[in-house]
Amino acid sequence: MAHAKPTVSLQARNVSKSFTSGDIRSTVLHDLTLDVRAGELTLISGPSGCGKSTLLAILSGLQRPDGGQVFALEQDLNHLDTRALERFRLLHTGFVFQGFNLFPALNALEQVELPLSYLGLSPAEARRRAMASLEEVGLGPRMKLRPSELSGGEKQRVAIARALAKEPDLLFADEPTSALDAANGQIVIDILHRIARAHGTTVLCVSHDPRLVGHADRVLAMEDGRILSDRVPSQTSTPTSGLEEPSA
Ligand SMILES: Nc1ncnc2c1ncn2[C@@H]1O[C@H](COP(=O)(O)OP(=O)(O)OP(=O)(O)O)[C@@H](O)[C@H]1O
Question: Is 42 in contact with 36 (CB distance < 8 Å)?
Fold first, then answer.
């Protein structure tokens, strides 16, 4: 079967970021250049503190880099003011975090419906989308349950359904399996993979969980704010390809 060339949906060009704590200034991202493609689950792996979450926050427009450029869906995020950036995130991005971030008083269906109201959808359309997303993550029969009645894996699936219902082009997941046991972690990563394939979504996941490596389409290994390797796990390790080259 012929495959169309994958679209590059996220680009970092010579991105750098430092933080100051007291008198100490530490560089967390060093002149980092990277392309991420649509329709793939890309995993950024690496030890704690190497800069994974900072990179995800910059690529998703949650944080601004000190230097360099980020293009998301061909928009230069540096050119968007705070309001435009918020709107960009509302329209095009979904987020999944380690801690689920669910409201204790809402059932699964209400959790997923809530953010859809900010998109201006009618209540009927919001309900339709929320139900479809919950079905897609296998929670159709449990959509009336509250977080206290759901397992950790199910809570994370609600969080994924909430992100998915927005139909985002870009889905960012920060340590989505860290709080889960092996079986539930596996289910979550399979769902993220399926979303990338089925919807053509760009799924960018950061994790130091080595169990995820074999399930990603592509694995970028990070250390000390740099990307050390870029490989496709099902194939033999390939050298970094053009990662550190400046933009054309
Ligand atoms: N807002 C901030 N202010 C000061 N330092 C920060 C800030 N955010 C991150 N850092 C520092 O930047 C470094 C990288 O943090 P980051 O969270 O990106 O790493 P990580 O690879 O995601 O780690 P983990 O796997 O533990 O989540 C750490 O040393 C962290 O303490």
Answer: yes
Whether domain 8-17+27-231 has CATH 3.40.50.300? yes
Ligand 1 proximity of 189 Cβ (cutoff 6 Å): no
Q: With H, G, I as helix, E, B as strand and everything else as coil, classify residue 67.
A: strand
SS3 14: strand
CA of 28 to the centre of ligand 1 (A): 7
- Retrieve residue 147's tokens: 């977080």
Q: How confident is the model at residue 118 (pLDDT cuts 50, 70, 90)?
A: confident
pLDDT digits (tens, 9 = 90+) for 35-52: 999 999 999 999 999 999
19 pocket-lining for ligand 1 (C-beta < 6 Å): yes
Q: How far, rounded to the nearest angstrom, does the alpha carbon of residue 192 sit from its chain's CA centroid?
A: 9
Q: Helices (DSSP H) in the chain: which residue ranges?
A: 52-59, 82-92, 108-118, 123-136, 152-164, 182-199
59 close to ligand 1 (CB < 6 Angstrom): no
pTM comes to 0.90
Q: Whose CA is nearest to atom 31 of ligand 1?
A: 49
For the chain, report the end-to-end CA distance as a whole number of angstroms: 30
Distance CA 222, CA 227 (A): 4
CA dihedral 193, 198, 203, 208 (to 10 degrees): 0
Give the Cα separation of 98 and 156 in Å (integer).
8
Q: Where are the domains of the chain?
A: 8-17+27-231
Model ipTM? 0.95
pLDDT in tens, 15-35: 999 999 898 999 999 999 999
Q: What is residue 74's three-state secondary structure?
A: coil
Q: Are strands 24-37 and 75-76 parallel, antiparallel or unpaired?
A: unpaired
